[in-house]
Design brief:
Length: 433
């Protein structure tokens, strides 16, 4: 991608930041008649659509997943599992052993581990495992190959032969019958891609891991609801299944973004490819265990989330998607990216001018909706409990935890507006514990 494109991202980041500032300061400087009632009305609209999205999960929660009996071995497609691994000595052996124990015809399953320039013992472990498991395919890249996780996955694509691709992280854990049930779900829904609900393995480790577990459940609640209402869903990087032909038609994995999953999700939507969300069985992974790792991870997610809207935003106003999908994308863009910036500006300007905050009803509505989704996601039927003991107090604590986004989003947007971006794969450390 050209340097001009990066400058274009910087310009769009600056314009977005400026627009949020103007939206915030104008009501403070000019006494706009009836503006507060407009904010209250907007809050009601946000609450109404949010409740609709969450409520679509009620039917799903009352129906047990039966995705297992509809597919028999002769109907199962050829599947390639792709894992991009860099410095994963703590978890890679466990992953490979578990993948080869999954219930799936051995002649229809290929497992590709991409050693993406590891500097630890990962290459040695993979060399030993490749002798132990004949069908394990190890693909190696140099540390300077570039493109991050997307580059590693694209490099491995040339070796694949399957009809479907399943992308996993090195710390992923699947239930033994996950693949069989996954394709039963695919057959029933005729999906072009499927995202497994993400769940946390180290949920009881500490406060942060418990909150991340509830956050993942909340995310799945909104994901399933958005899919049911507006046919909008997103991939989450780990546990994403996609048809190879569909992926190639969309241009493969984007090597010029820090979140290939979010970028691909938007391209799939623009190409009218359907993404399904499967609640159970989930894909399990490690949550980060300290604040520094959490903030680093969330900055990458925030930057990638903004990048996709800056890159493809103009196409969202075309006829490639319908009006309900445009509304849904606008709704969640405002809540996820614009609201945190506006709220921080609103607070700072209120203090500076000795004025009252204006946009607090929208922020309050967003936190209430998140709290409901937190609580409901933690209490839903699940093969892997979201919490060891779900309770109302933990829900309130998790809502407070969610406020970190109101610091991360403004900070990332400011950085994107000022500094040129180098695409780096800032991987999450996996301990294997």
């Amino acid at each position: 991608m050209s340097k001009g494109f990066y400058k274009n991202r910087r310009l769009k980041s600056f314009l977005f930041l400026s627009a949020c500032f103007l939206v915030t300061i104008i009501p403070h400087v000019y006494n706009i008649r009836g503006f507060f009632y407009f904010i209250l009305t907007l809050s009601l609209v946000i609450a109404f659509y949010g409740f609709i999205v969450i409520s679509r999960n009620f039917k799903r929660n009352n129906i047990a997943n039966t995705y297992s009996s509809g597919v028999i071995n002769k109907d199962l497609p050829l599947l390639d599992i792709l894992v991009a691994a860099r410095d994963e000595e703590n978890v890679i052996e466990r992953l490979v052993e578990r993948l080869f124990n999954l219930d799936y015809p051995k002649n229809k399953l290929n497992i590709y581990i991409i050693d993406d320039g590891s500097s630890d013992k990962t290459p040695l472990i993979l060399d030993r495992l490749s002798r132990q498991f004949e069908k394990l395919k190890v693909v190696s890249r140099s540390p300077s190959a570039g493109g991050g996780k997307s580059g590693a996955l694209n490099y491995a694509l040339k070796f694949t032969h399957g009809e479907w691709l399943l992308v996993l992280d090195a710390d992923a854990q699947l239930k033994q019958d996950s693949l069989i049930r996954l394709f039963s779900f695919v057959e029933e829904g005729d999906w072009s891609a499927v995202q497994l609900r993400k769940s946390v393995t180290n949920v009881s480790k500490n406060f942060l891991t418990s909150c991340q577990s509830m956050e993942m459940a909340m995310d799945a609640i909104f994901q399933y609801g958005r899919l049911s209402v507006a046919r909008v869903a997103e991939l989450r990087g780990n546990g994403e299944l996609i048809k190879k032909d569909t992926l190639l038609a969309c241009g493969s994995f984007n090597e010029d973004t820090v979140t290939d999953d979010l970028d691909l999700s938007l391209r799939l939507l623009l190409s009218n490819s359907r993404i399904g969300i499967l609640w159970d069985p989930p894909v399990m992974e490690e949550a980060v265990e300290n604040l520094n790792a959490l903030l680093a991870q969330r900055q990458r997610w925030a930057e990638g989330g903004l990048q996709r809207f800056f890159d493809y935003g103009d196409q969202l106003f075309t006829n490639k998607i319908d009006y309900l999908q445009k509304f849904d994308l606008t709704y969640f863009f405002i809540l996820q990216y614009a609201l945190p910036i506006i709220s921080i500006f609103d607070l700072v300007i209120s203090i500076a001018l000795l004025d009252s905050p204006i946009y607090w009803p929208i922020s309050l509505t967003a936190f209430v909706l998140s709290g409901i989704a937190f609580w409901y996601g933690a209490s839903c039927k699940s093969e892997v409990p979201v919490l060891q003991k779900g309770n109302l107090l933990m829900t309130f604590v998790s809502i407070f935890y969610l406020s970190h986004w109101f610091l991360v989003i403004p900070w990332v947007t400011i950085k994107m507006s000022i500094f040129p971006k180098k695409i780096l794969w800032r991987k999450t450390l996996h301990t294997g514990v």
